[in-house]
Amino acid sequence: METINRLHRSLLRGDEEQDEEGFLGESEGLCSLSPLQRIYGFAACLVAGLAFMLLSLIVFARPIKFAVMFTFGNIMAVGSTAFLIGPGQQARMMLDPVRVYATAIYIGCVVLALFCALLIHNKLLTLIAIICEVCALIWFPKALP
After folding, report:
1. Closest CA relative to residue 40, chosen from 83, 79, 85
2. Tally of domains in the chain
3. What is the mean pLDDT of residues 54-63?
4. Contact yes or no for 86/23 (Cβ under 8 A)
5. CA dihedral 137, 114, 76, 6 (to 10 degrees)
6. Is residue 126 part of a domain?
7. Residues 85 and 105 in one domain
8. Is position 101 within any domain?
9. Which residues of 57-84 are buried (b: 16+ CB within 10 A; e: fewer)?
10. At a CB cut-off of 8 Å and minimum separation 6, what does 111 contact?
11. Domain-embedded: residue 134
């Protein structure tokens, strides 16, 4: 949360200095983005993810296409926050003791949805896995102390 506050202050001041951790905790010199570039990356990834999820509803009758498109869009939408706080910080937050169960259920449901769609070809099991995936995402922010 502090990283987001620093990003917000930096955007308001307009300076380009960054003292945050970068990609997987490395120094920012190797992979540096300005605060505005981070916002653009977040927005683009989030919009693309939401577009994939909405477009997947068109091919709902075909479980393979539906599961792949929906899951890819879902991962893009969740991963969009890595632009704001960095992938290392996001991984640490997802593996926080209070969120580890929601994270494990989410990742398990992603794998299960793809397994049911690509290998089993069962529409009902794929739909159940997708519903569980969405429920895990809804539960994730509520898994705070």
Report:
1. 83
2. 2
3. 88
4. yes
5. 50
6. yes
7. no
8. yes
9. eeeeeebbebbbbbbbbbbbbbebbbbb
10. none
11. yes
